[in-house]
Design a protein that fits this description.
By secondary structure, the protein is mostly beta strands. The protein has one domain: Nucleoside-specific channel-forming protein, Tsx-like (Outer membrane phospholipase (ompla), Chain C), CATH 2.40.230.20. Helices cover 6% and strands 45% of the residues. The strands form 2 sheets. The chain has a 12-stranded antiparallel beta barrel. The chain is globular and about 65 Å long.
Length: 355
């Protein structure tokens, strides 16, 4: 077994990787699944249950976030808890977020004028994500799935949930299942690719009968049942180890998910306008630069206990709504003019603390 700084190579890599999966995305978090030890022990009773156990609190701020139907860009504060662990046969990741918009994305009911500062309180949103992996090298007690830069193949399963106090009253639930291919990058880095099956259920008040044009039944309770579709989830992390020793406090990371069209949400003979047909969705944080503040202040022993970071968010066709279709009122807010509320572009910054 190769060693780095006195630790097994796989453990050094996992600890570094775990530090980046506290990455938040406004409204949706990414699948953060890291490969487990190359070879599992003969009995899980021979080792502690958690080989790695990492818990963090994060505060972040998105400067120009948006929501479908919002009159203009809205700032969002994000409060989050993340848990990541490695056990003998895989990994587990949990993320819980509370997101608070400013008044430009008003909570409902709102009797003020939409778009007027401080007319109403901003929305509050809760988001939760869970992902688990089960490594093939660990399950089959082999190294056969470590080939060149490929470090492991894993089964991946997970679920998401989201609820928000806006007029649409979203109540999202989804499940994912598929594979993860984990690749090594230089400087203890990794790159993960996860093609998965995706199934979503949600709620949209605008799809209820009272909002339907003639000829459409609408959905009596607003609850949607989308078609199953595909999704590809990516994430990466790498220390900037090529920097001089005196500057080795930085790391770069990112994540993205590409999701296919999931239909219009109607079911059982119920009908909604074709404008509700979804399109491929891209939800990403292409790059995040992390500064290891605790390593600078207190030394390597406390590396990544306090991270300060800055990132960029890009979310196209948010929630699957077609940003290019003038019939989608949530995207073309007034008089057929697209206010880009279905495409989010924002600088995003925060601080994460390990405990």
């Amino acid at each position: 077994m190769h060693l780095r700084n006195g630790k097994p190579a796989w453990l050094t890599k996992l600890i570094g990787a775990a530090l980046t999966i506290t990455g938040l995305s406004v409204g949706m978090a990414f699948a953060a699944d890291i490969d487990a030890p190359t070879k599992a022990p003969k009995s899980v009773l021979d080792v502690p249950w958690f080989i790695v156990n990492d818990n963090r609190l994060t505060y972040a701020y998105a400067f120009t976030a948006t929501e479908p139907g919002a009159a203009s860009r809205t700032a969002k504060q994000v409060f989050a808890f993340t848990h990541f662990d490695v056990w003998a046969y895989g990994t587990n990741f949990v993320e819980l977020e509370m997101l608070k918009s400013d008044s430009r994305d008003p909570a409902s009911p709102c009797l003020g004028t939409v778009g007027v500062p401080n007319a109403c309180a901003g929305t509050a949103e809760f988001y939760g994500l869970f992902r688990s992996t089960f490594g093939w090298n660990q399950i089959f007690d082999t190294k056969a799935f470590t080939i060149g830069p490929l470090s492991n193949i894993s089964f991946v399963i997970g679920a998401d949930t989201e609820v928000e106090n806006q007029f649409l009253a979203p109540n999202k639930k989804d499940i994912v299942a598929g594979l993860q291919f984990a690749f090594d990058l230089p400087y203890k880095g990794y790159f993960n690719v996860s093609p998965v099956y995706y199934q979503e259920w949600n709620h949209n008040a605008f799809l209820m009968p009272g909002f339907m044009p003639a000829g459409f039944t609408g959905l009596p309770d607003g609850n949607t049942r989308f078609h199953p579709t595909w999704s590809v989830e990516l994430n990466y992390y790498m220390d900037l180890g090529f920097l001089p020793e005196s500057m080795q406090y930085f790391a770069v990371s990112g994540r993205a998910s590409f999701r296919g069209s999931k239909g219009d949400g109607s079911y059982g003979g119920l009908t909604v306008p074709s404008s509700n047909n979804t399109r491929m969705e891209i939800n990403s944080e292409p790059v995040r630069l992390t500064f290891d503040a605790s390593k600078l202040l207190w030394g390597k022993k406390y590396s990544h206990f306090v991270d300060v970071w800055v990132a960029y968010l890009y979310w196209h066709n948010k929630f699957g709504l077609d940003d290019s279709n003038p019939a989608v009122g949530a995207c073309f807010f007034a008089n057929g003019v697209n206010n880009k509320s279905c495409t989010e572009k924002s600088l995003y910054s925060g601080i994460s603390v390990k405990f």
